[in-house]
Structures are given as structure tokens and as C-alpha cells.
Amino acid sequence: MRNLLLFLRRFLPELALLFAAFVSLNLLNSSSGKHNNALTGALGSTASSVFQVKSSVSNYFSLSENNERLQLENQSLRNKLTERLSMVPSAEVRIDSTQLLRYQACDIINSTVHKDNNYFTINQGAKHGVNPGLAVVSDKGIVGVVTHSGNNYSIVLPVLNQRFTTSAEHKKTGSFGFINWRGIDPKIVNLSDVANHITMNVGDTIISRGSSIYPRGINIGKVSEVNTLPGEPYLNIEVELFEDFGSLRHVFWVDKLLIAEQDSLEQIQEAL
Amino acid sequence: MNSILIFCLRALGLLLIQQLLLNHMPIGNGLCFAFILPLALYTLPFDTERTQLILCGFVLGLITDAFESSYGLYTLSFSILAYAIGLLRNRFYGREESESKQNGILDNGVVKNLPFLFTCNFIVLLAFYLIENFSASGIGYAVLRALLSSILSTLFMASFQFLFPSKRMNNR
Predict the structure, then answer these.
(1) Can you tell me the distance from the alpha carbon of B111 to that of B99, in angstroms, rounded to the nearest whole number?
(2) Mean of the per-residue pLDDT values for chain A?
(3) Stretch A62-70: mean pLDDT, rounded?
């Protein structure tokens, strides 16, 4: 208290000047249109700058919450899109009925990328509707497939596992092969079984071909290297993945709503 | 109390001279004018505290604003001037002058006062023109007007001292 009084006493002239300036500017502001405009403009821009900084700081602290909200919104939009597309007449948009999908957002809570056989753990399990065999994708492309599901958690076999394989398609030509990882670079996978008469250029996009696990047309990566081996009928193709698995946190598991019907039909065909 | 009363009477007299005479004598097509109202603050005793000086400047500014219908313009200018006087008076005048606490600043002789008068006049007029203009575009013109007006005002104040020398100055 004593220090406060000493401080006030020491800076009394400055405080008096500030008070005088405050009163004068108020008088100017209320009496003169020109000063009113200038003061409002100056104070407005200063206040805007302060609000901008404040907003940036508070945004930083609410990033996690915003991420979660956006993820839910994404999930809802994807589901709505699927519903809408399934209602569009087939003349306008060609939608395979097997593409009827449900996207459910979830988080990766544990993952490895540098082992030969990597696994991810997601924070949803059987009680959320996750079953083995469901596809897991992200905004950028395919991620993996669910292999085991507990009540609350599930294990995902990611692309970065030598046991993982799925059929993939060259977007330009439609020719297809199989994607697998050789366990060296977490950004590069191999596309095998593409015949060497196919024209494939570096930068071409590779998408999922559609299988009992993955819907068709989900991005995988872009061609980074194409080699022709002498005497071999197939091209040796390296594909750079769109997804950076090292920083991957938010994913979706995909439920193909009509997969049961597809499976039963295929089983009948096999039985014949 | 006595010095406050003298200040009020002096301020009133200067205000009348400023309003009735000097404000009707713009020089250079309104480029500059003689501003002698700050004399009321210069004549306050040396021992006037800085806060009291600012208060006097504030009141003088308010009254002038009331006459000029320019609310806030003179109040802020005179408050800044009073603050500047409080800071500058001990720098411009040595121990000998400031020891005569009851003496006003102008009791130190006309020639000796000129640098102080010019500096303070320039500060108050620069503040006045900058506040009046209140935009970044006219700063150069405001500085020019403040410079010319402060030269003119200093000359007027010096003449004023020659014409009406204070009693204390005569005794020295």
C-alpha cells in the first residue's frame, strides 16, 4: 500500500497529464466530427489488432477441440454425401450400390512406422461398431484394415506392414495391380502386377480398385518411379503415398453397408 | 492562494488581448499567428508543483476552448505545455534563478528567457496544430506553422515584457 502511494506520488504529474489528455480527447471526440472519425478509426484499428492477437492465442488453445469438431463435421458430411449420391439417378452419376458407405471418425492412439510390420491402435471397438475387415482411411487416402477389435479399441493393419496388400488402379488407364510395402521407406510402396505395355508416367495417381474391404476410388499415392526389368512381363513401380503415416492422428473407419449382400452373392458364385 | 488569483486575473487579461486583438491579426494568409496566452503559465512562480502546473494549464485550456468553441483542442495543448514547462524549467535556468522560488520564469530577463520561451511556444503550437489537423498527411505543414507561429509569439512575448516589465525584474 505504501509502495502504491509512493508510486502514485512519484508519477502524479504524468497521471494528471493522462487524465487531462483523456478528458480533452473525450471533448474533442464529442464536439468535432473530424476528430470523432479519426479517433474512432484509430481506436477501431488498434482494437482490431488486439482482438486479432487475442483470437490467434485463444484459437491455438482450442485447436484440439476444433479438430474434433471438424472431424465430426467431416464425418457427417461424408455420410450425407453418400446418402445423396445414392439417390441421384444413375444417368447423371454412376454410383455402384456397393459404394453405399458409412464413415465414422476415430483417433489413432498408438502407432509405429519404422518396424517391418507396423500396427496402429484406434480408440473405437466392437461397441462402436468396429469389426475385423473394415477399411480405415484418412482425408488423404487409404490407411489400413481392422484386424482385431476389442470392446473399446481395435488394431489396424496399416499399409506400412509387409502383410498388407490391396488391389490398386492406375487412375488414367484403369489398369490394376497390387499394393504392398517392402519395409524400407515409410513413404514408398510398390505396385506390382501391372503389365509392361501400360504407359505409366511419374506423377500419375494410383487409387483403390474396390474390393470387399475398400471402396473404389480412394487415393493411395502418386507414381514416383517406373522401371522395366528385362525379361519381366510386369513393370516395377514405386508409389509415393499421399498420407504421411508419421503424423497421422485422425482417421475414419468405413462401413460398406451392402457388403453382406455382396459377400453372399460371391459365395454362391464360388459354390457353383 | 494569492498566486492563483494573480494567475486567474493575468489569464483573463491575456485571453481578452488574444481574443479581441491577436486572433484578428493572422499573418501570411492564416499561416501563423501570435499566441501570447501561454504567458499566463510562464509567469507562475518557480515553486509551483508540476501537478498544479498541469491543473492550471488544463483550466486555462478549458476556458479558452469555451471562448473558441473548440472543446478539447486548447485543453490538451495547454496540459502538454504545462507538463513540458515542469520538465524544462530546471534545465533552462540555473540554481540562482530557481532559488528565488517566488519569482516567475519571466522575471529572469528578456534575453535570457528567449530560448525557453521559443521552445515552450514551439511545443504548445506544435501540439495545437497537430491536434487540430489530426491526420498524418499534414504533419509537415503543421510543423512549419508551429515554427513560424512560435517565432512570432516569442517576439510578441519579448515585446510584452519590454512594455510591461514585472516589479521583481525591476528590483533585480
Answers:
(1) 20
(2) 81
(3) 81
Of A168, A236, A166, A229, the C-alpha closest to A200 is A236
Enter the C-alpha cell of residue A15. 497521471
What residues of A are in contact with residue B137 (Cβ under 8 Å)?
Answer: none
State yes or no: pLDDT of B172 exceeds 60: no
Chain B CB contacts of A20 below 8 Å: 54, 57-58, 61, 75-76, 79
The answer to whether residue B141 neighbours chain A at the CB level (below 8 Å) is: no
Instruction: Determine contact: B137 vs chain A, CB below 8 A.
Output: no
Residues whose CB falls within 8 Å of the CB of residue A94, separated by 6 or more in sequence, listed in order: none
Rounded to a whole number of angstroms, the distance from the CA of A56 to the nearest CA of chain B is 30
Q: Is the pLDDT of residue B123 over 70?
A: yes
Higher per-residue pLDDT: B169 or B138: B138
Q: Assess contact for B93 and B86: CB atoms under 8 A.
A: no
Q: Is the predicted pLDDT of residue A35 greater than 90, yes or no?
A: no
Yes or no, beta carbons of B72 and A12 under 8 Å apart? no
Q: Which chain B residue's Cα is nearest to A30?
A: B71
Instruction: List B residues 100-129 in contact with A (Cβ-Cβ < 8 A).
Output: none
The answer to whether residues A116 and A162 touch, using CB atoms and an 8 Å cutoff, is: yes
Classify A231 in phi/psi space as left (phi over 0), alpha (psi -120 to 50) or beta. Answer: left
Distance from the B169 Cα atom to the nearest Cα atom in chain A, whole angstroms: 29
Cβ separation A16–B71 shorter than 8 A: no
A39: CB partners within 8 A, 6+ apart: A25, A28, A29
Looking at residue B84, its pLDDT comes to 92
Could you report the per-residue pLDDT of A160-177, keeping only the tens digit for each? Answer: 988 899 999 998 888 999
How far, in Å, are A30, A107, A161, A236 from residue A185 at the CA level? Answer: 70, 24, 11, 16
Q: Enumerate residues 6+ apart whose C-beta is below 8 A from B143.
A: B126, B129
Residues of B with CB below 8 A from A13's CB? 50-51, 53-54, 83, 86
Query: What share of chain A has pLDDT > 70, as a percent?
Result: 83
Q: Taking 90 as the threshold, does the pLDDT of residue A32 lie above it?
A: no
**Predicted model pTM:** 0.47
Helix (H, G, I), strand (E, B) or coil at A131: coil
The minimal CB distance from A23 to the residues B51, B73, B75 is found for B75
B19 C-beta neighbours (distance < 10 Å), count: 14
The answer to whether residue B66 neighbours chain A at the CB level (below 8 Å) is no
Nearest CA in chain B to A22: B76
